[in-house]
């Protein structure tokens, strides 16, 4: 019985006719498959959408009515087209639906794997044991915490089970349709409905799982700083600025280049962009780090291959008063970049840049875009707080005080992605190993696959810190 | 006492406030007010002017392009010459001029590469000729940017400035923080009478008035009639006519009636030694009022005068903060106060600006 299911999953991606043939050959008769389906439905009943019940019943009814004809084949699509019922559901539509079901099954598998099912089940067992313990209510606060964690864990497991059963239901419809010599449009309609709803639910789940950080739903501030490498690096920084602005425009986020320091020959020394929109920070937070380019530099007269670096920092764009972090004045080193000289009345320059360093961690921010020093200081301080909050979150520190400054620099400067323009074209993320040859699209802001790959990577790391899947 | 009367008088409908501002100086007979002084009319900063001029995007772009080419011709020559602005800073200034002058600067600045044939109309707060003239003066004559746009962003304020008035410096912003610290420690200071001596654009007076309590008042004095006119205009723009009284006259002279009543004195007096004036950055030396910069041979003539006067002007426990030319002057003044004014002041100290220069001296009148 099990073999039926396994083999059918195994050959799922094969063309329809061969699949149908194999299915039919492998099957030991329709009845067993219904039983198999029933067995699986045992755990589903609560979760399946109501609209599906009649369909399931009809599947069973139809199954019974199928005369044992294992030789029936779906080798040619025309078989189905002759049926009057398929005017609404042509073979073509069926193929599409089948493809959708395949995709959704894969997606469910991925999500279940990423969610760390094994870990969740272990957690559940541990929490259940804790909840059943007699001493549970000795500590009321802890008891409530335990019970809440138990509920959360159960809910999540239930949701993951829901996904599986719904995907299986849709799969069953497809399989049965393949097996039967007819296409039932009501049937397929229901499968299509399930897929649609399931995809929405999966989107929601993914979003909440992948973007569940405390600042993920906020806007983002990106700071781009050209690394060593002179004009080539400054040009590279400018290219990245364009890339992120293009990406943001595609997401319909509002972008504002709030600061830009132009390079002598070309490009930029640095720039700061504010990207305002829901989840901008969540998506972009993984972009922080060093981005490396390899190309034949247009600024190198010999046309030699050159490598340059640009640093990207990403911080949440927090409303000014939302950061209720108090940093003691003595922990701050505020310097006011007014180039040398006597200052005061002796100088009149509009340069009012403020740089604030958080002494215990060495984390520093700079703000130059405002027209007064105080305004720059306020903005810099607010950015510093946002940055410290993010670092605290990353290090799972409950307070700014607990931040381990020594690791900050290493983490934030880590090389995360390579962009090779020459001798071949390749963009590759060193963390996720996701890569593409379409470097032009990436530079045009096609970052979504990279972002998604990173979020999944981060999520699976968080779910399985030990590396187990 | 006189001050309260004055403030009562000023409680009049806004429509007469302009007249009031001018007549405000007159009742103070003790200070020398020459009649032409009262006729100084403060200029409106560009960003406050109505956008009555119409031009096309393409013409504006031509101007912008021209202005940028003027900037790139500067490179770092001013920087090397007299520590003036380099092209990067000038570019930033140009952006700010666009921000101030155009009604919808964002759409203009964010699409700089649009074609030159865009004939759609833009509303501007100055004529195209003025914009050409202003930027030419900025780069060729080294006129300070703040005089070009007629304002300076200082703390959270936007202050009107014009030729004849010292442009408030970012360092001076700190004095307001020093005052804030002092009034947080001693509530009496919050509700008392303050003086800003040599107020210029009125920056310190306004900054302090905004952190004082409901009964706190500031008297701002300046010898220059242009300065008093501009300071009055700024005070009016921030609706502080009730709290800040601008008086024309030299240092303590306009304050004689309130001798010994002040809870605080602040000043950014001229402190540059006369011999250094010639070598200043062109924007400063050529355009800003010498009256506000030149502190005599040592640069400390006025600072010493202020330290001397503070003894009789301040109430016991009163606070003072003065800006200086840096380490040398601050050290000298602290020493001067400790030896020559022995017992009159307490907690006298030097405070550094963000560049680490000992820019200020602060202290309290002994009780």
From TrEMBL, chain A:
Recorded hits in PANTHER family, A to Z, give:
CLASS I PEPTIDE CHAIN RELEASE FACTOR, PEPTIDE CHAIN RELEASE FACTOR 2
Q: Which family does it belong to?
A: Belongs to the prokaryotic/mitochondrial release factor family.
* Protein name in the entry: Prokaryotic-type class I peptide chain release factors domain-containing protein
For molecular function, the Gene Ontology terms on record are: translation release factor activity, codon specific
Q: Has UniProt tagged this entry with the keyword NADP?
A: no
Keywords of the record, alphabetical order, are: Protein biosynthesis
Signal sequence span per UniProt? none
Among the Pfam families in the record, one is PCRF
Entry's NCBIfam families?
prfB
InterPro entries named in the record: PCRF, Pep_chain_release_fac_I, Pep_chain_release_fac_I_sf, PrfB
One GO cellular component assignment for this chain's record is: cytoplasm
Name its species: Solanum lycopersicum
Q: Where is the Prokaryotic-type class I peptide chain release factors domain?
A: 338-354
From TrEMBL, chain B:
Gene Ontology process terms (BP): methylation
GO molecular function terms attached to this record: nucleic acid binding; protein methyltransferase activity
Q: What species does this protein belong to?
A: Solanum lycopersicum (Tomato)
Among SUPFAM superfamilies, the record links this protein to: S-adenosyl-L-methionine-dependent methyltransferases (SSF53335)
Q: Which Gene3D superfamilies match?
A: Vaccinia Virus protein VP39
Q: Which residues form a coiled coil?
A: none
Which PROSITE patterns does UniProt cross-reference here?
N6_MTASE
What is the protein's given name?
Methyltransferase small domain-containing protein
Annotated keywords:
Methyltransferase, S-adenosyl-L-methionine, Transferase
């Amino acid at each position: 019985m099990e073999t039926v299911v396994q083999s059918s999953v195994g050959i799922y991606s094969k063309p329809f006719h061969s699949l149908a043939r194999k299915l039919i050959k492998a099957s030991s008769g329709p009845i067993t498959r219904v039983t198999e389906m029933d067995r699986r439905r045992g755990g589903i009943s609560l979760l399946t959408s109501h609209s599906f019940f009649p369909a399931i019943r009809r599947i069973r009814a139809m199954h019974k009515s199928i005369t044992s004809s294992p030789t029936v084949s779906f080798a040619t699509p025309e078989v189905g087209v002759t049926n009057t019922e398929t005017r609404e559901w042509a073979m073509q539509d069926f193929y599409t639906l089948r493809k959708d079901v395949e995709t959704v099954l894969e997606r469910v598998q991925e999500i279940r794997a990423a969610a760390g099912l094994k870990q969740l089940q272990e957690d559940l067992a541990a929490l259940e044991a804790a909840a059943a313990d007699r001493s549970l209510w000795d500590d009321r606060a802890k008891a409530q915490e335990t019970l809440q964690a138990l509920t959360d864990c159960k809910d999540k497991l239930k949701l993951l089970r829901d996904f599986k059963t719904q995907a299986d239901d849709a799969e069953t419809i497809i399989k049965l349709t393949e097996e039967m010599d007819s296409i039932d449009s009501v049937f397929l309609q229901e499968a299509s409905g399930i897929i649609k709803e399931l995809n929405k639910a999966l989107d929601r789940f993914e979003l909440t799982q992948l973007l569940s950080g405390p600042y993920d739903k906020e806007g983002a501030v990106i700071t781009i700083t050209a690394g060593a490498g002179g004009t080539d690096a400054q040009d590279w920084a400018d290219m990245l600025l364009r890339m992120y602005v293009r990406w943001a425009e595609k997401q319909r986020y509002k972008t504002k280049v709030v600061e830009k320091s132009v390079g002598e020959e070309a490009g930029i020394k640095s720039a700061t962009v504010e990207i305002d929109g829901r989840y901008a920070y969540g998506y972009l937070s993984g972009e922080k780090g060093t981005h490396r380019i390899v190309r034949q530099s247009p600024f190198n007269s010999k046309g030699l291959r050159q490598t340059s670096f640009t640093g990207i920092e990403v911080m949440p764009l927090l409303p000014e008063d939302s950061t209720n972090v108090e940093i003691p004045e003595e922990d701050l080193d505020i310097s006011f970049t007014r180039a040398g000289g006597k200052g005061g009345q002796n100088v009149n320059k509009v340069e009012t840049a403020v740089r604030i360093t958080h002494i215990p961690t060495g984390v520093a921010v700079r703000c130059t875009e405002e027209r007064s020093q105080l305004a720059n200081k306020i903005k810099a301080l607010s950015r510093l707080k946002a940055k410290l909050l993010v670092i605290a979150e990353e290090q799972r520190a409950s307070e700014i005080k607990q931040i381990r400054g020594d690791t900050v620099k290493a983490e934030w400067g880590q090389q995360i992605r390579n962009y090779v323009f020459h001798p071949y074209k390749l963009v590759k993320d060193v963390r996720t190993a996701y890569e593409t040859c379409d470097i032009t699209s990436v530079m045009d802001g096609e970052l979504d696959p990279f972002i998604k790959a990173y979020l999944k990577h981060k999520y699976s790391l968080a779910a399985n810190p030990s590396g187990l899947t | 006492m006189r001050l309260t009367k004055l403030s009562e008088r000023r409680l009049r409908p806004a429509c007469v406030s302009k007249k009031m501002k001018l007549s405000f100086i007159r009742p103070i007979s003790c200070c020398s007010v020459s009649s032409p002084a009262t006729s100084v009319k403060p200029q409106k900063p560009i960003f406050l002017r109505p956008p009555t001029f119409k031009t096309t995007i393409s013409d504006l772009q031509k101007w912008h392009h021209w202005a940028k080419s003027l900037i790139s011709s500067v490179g770092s020559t001013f920087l090397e010459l007299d520590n003036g602005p380099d092209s990067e800073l000038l570019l930033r200034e140009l952006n700010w001029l666009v921000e101030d002058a155009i009604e919808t600067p964002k759409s203009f600045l964010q699409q700089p590469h649009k074609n030159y044939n865009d004939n759609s109309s833009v509303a501007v707060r100055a004529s195209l000729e003025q914009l050409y003239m202003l930027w030419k003066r900025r780069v060729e004559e080294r006129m300070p940017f703040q005089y070009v746009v007629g304002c300076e962003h200082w703390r959270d304020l936007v202050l009107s400035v014009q030729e004849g008035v010292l442009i408030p410096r970012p360092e001076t912003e700190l004095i307001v923080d020093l005052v804030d610290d002092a009034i947080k420690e001693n509530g009496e200071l919050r509700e008392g009478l303050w003086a800003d001596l040599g107020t210029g654009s009125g920056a310190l007076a306004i900054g302090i008035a905004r952190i004082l309590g409901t009964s706190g008042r500031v008297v701002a004095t300046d010898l220059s009639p242009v300065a008093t006119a501009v300071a009055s205009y700024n005070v009016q723009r921030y609706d502080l006519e009730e709290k800040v009284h601008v008086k024309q006259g030299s240092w303590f002279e306009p304050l004689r009636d309130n001798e010994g009543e002040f809870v605080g004195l602040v000043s950014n007096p001229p402190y540059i030694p006369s011999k250094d004036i010639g070598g200043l950055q062109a924007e400063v030396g050529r355009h800003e009022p010498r009256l506000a910069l030149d502190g005599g041979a040592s640069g400390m003539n006025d600072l010493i005068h202020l330290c001397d006067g503070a003894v009789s002007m301040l109430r016991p426990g009163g606070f003072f903060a003065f800006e200086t030319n840096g380490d040398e002057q601050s050290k000298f003044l602290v020493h001067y106060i400790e030896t020559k004014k022995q017992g009159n002041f307490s907690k006298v100290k030097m405070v550094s600006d963000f560049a680490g220069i000992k820019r200020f001296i602060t202290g309290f009148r002994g009780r």
